[in-house]
């Protein structure tokens, strides 16, 4: 079976996770249709390596009900992060329920984390055999907490395309980036503007 390839253009792990829904605002398309997709996204995003991905997939197959619950928690976290950031970008007050869900997820991630030795020192991680099924959601929750409490929060943008709701971190010097990806939404917008100019000139 061909594996999905996920777009990782958000500039932050939690933003890439919110972008696992595509399509249009009116007709969204879910890219995470099962726990296997969640694992594959995490592998491509660098959250886990291939060995951990295979171990997670095996555990999910052995405990499908637990995996389904972990999947629901991950999707709920994704939606809360997206709603909060979109609300803030529009100058609205985020839902307290969304703030609380992210807070609880971050606390859960911290409570289960351990210091893991790396080549450069130590980092927080979630080691274990078998690996915890919430490992991916915990990594996303930690990154969301980091983003929400950093100066990068002011650089979060929603794609300007009318048919896209993806989020991204605007790292341009003058903070003028408008599209989640210039090669997709940006080019479509340019083509549409060109078509409209040509049509106006002919009328």
Short structural summary:
The protein is mostly helical.
Write the layout of secondary structure elements.
Blueprint: H1 13-18, E1 21-23, E2 28-30, H2 35-45, H3 50-62, H4 64-89, H5 96-112, E3 114-118, E4 121-125, H6 135-148, E5 156-158, E6 167-169, H7 182-202
Antiparallel strand pairs: 1-2, 3-4, 5-6
Helix pairs in contact: 2-3, 3-4, 4-5, 4-6, 5-6
Describe this structure in words.
The strands form three sheets. The chain has a two-stranded antiparallel sheet. It has a two-stranded antiparallel ribbon with strand order 3-4. A two-stranded antiparallel sheet has the order 5-6. 33% of the residues are buried. With 203 residues, it is mainly alpha-helical. It is 53% helix and 11% strand. The longest helix is centred in the middle third of the chain and has 26 residues, at 64-89. The chain has seven helices and six strands, in the order H-E-E-H-H-H-H-E-E-H-E-E-H. The model is unreliable at 188-201 (pLDDT under 50). The termini are far apart.
């Amino acid at each position: 079976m061909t594996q999905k390839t996920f777009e990782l253009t958000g500039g932050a792990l939690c933003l890439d996770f919110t972008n696992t829904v595509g399509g249009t605002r009116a007709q969204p398309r879910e890219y995470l249709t099962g726990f296997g997709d969640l694992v594959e996204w995490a592998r491509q995003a660098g959250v886990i390596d291939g060995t951990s991905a295979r171990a997670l997939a095996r555990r999910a197959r052995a405990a499908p009900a637990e995996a389904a619950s972990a999947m629901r928690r991950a999707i709920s976290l994704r939606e809360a992060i997206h709603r909060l950031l979109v609300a803030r970008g529009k100058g609205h007050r985020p839902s307290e329920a969304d703030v609380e869900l992210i807070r609880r997820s971050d606390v859960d991630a911290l409570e289960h984390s351990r210091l893991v030795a790396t080549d450069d020192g130590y980092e927080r991680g979630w080691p274990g055999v078998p690996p915890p099924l919430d490992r991916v959601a915990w990594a996303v929750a930690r990154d969301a907490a980091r983003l929400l409490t950093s100066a990068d929060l002011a650089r979060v943008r929603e794609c300007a395309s009318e048919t896209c709701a993806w989020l991204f971190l605007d790292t341009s010097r003058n903070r003028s980036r408008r599209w989640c990806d210039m090669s997709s939404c940006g080019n479509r917008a340019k083509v549409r503007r060109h078509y409209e100019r040509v049509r106006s000139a002919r009328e």
